[in-house]
UniProtKB/TrEMBL annotation:
Belongs to the PER33/POM33 family. This is TMM33 protein. The chain crosses the membrane at residues 12-33, 80-106, 150-174. Keywords: Membrane, Transmembrane, Transmembrane helix. It is found in: Membrane. It comes from the Eukaryota. It holds the Pfam family TMEM33_Pom33. InterPro entries: PER33/POM33_regulator, TMEM33/Pom33. It is a multi-pass membrane protein. The gene is Tmem33. GO terms for biological process: endoplasmic reticulum tubular network organization; membrane organization.
Amino acid sequence: QFLMANKLDTAMWISRLFTVYCSALFVLPLLGLHEAASFYQRALLANALTSALRLHQRLPHFQLSRAFLAQALLEDSCHYLLYSLIFVNSYPVTMSIFPVLLFSLLHAATYTKKVLDARSSNSLPFLRNLLEKLNANQQNILKFIACNEIFLMPATVFMLFSGQGSLLQPFIYYRFLTLRYSSRRNPYCRTLFTELRIIVEHLIMKPSCPVFVRRLCLTSISFISRLAPTVA
């Protein structure tokens, strides 16, 4: 009754579980490397479906207008719909699957707990314990996801020069990264950029750091800071 009363949430729960399943079989290629590539695409397509459903839930009344597009781009679900479309037809990159896997795992765990509560307050204690441990590490997981989002930017550039990526991919991914940086619901990407800047500045200001390395890092920090969007 609980599942039928929340059909859209249940559909997203199933698609997230399927995303976790496909992502796991890509990261751990138990069925062979050839099959792993197909599971990579399936995971991203399932994530795109979940993101589209979530976006529909957040903005149920679609309008073909600039205002609606601007509002949609503020939603995290729109960001990851774009993310899935960027990588679904690209060369499989293990780093790119982790955000999809971990976000799906976190959201699926939250809804699984609701399903268990609807069934019985004491049902499946072992599973409940696993879900509690996952929830306790949520902040660390979100930081790891943000770290993946950031370091995928140079990875897309490297893929381009190695012949495994397209010319447009780094530019589209840069747009995705600016959306994540400006996210209203998830500040972790913005926080990680700040933390990384503090760490690098601390290291390069040590006397043992060569002058040319210090200058290179300061120039890079200044360049990246200029690319960062203004956050309201």
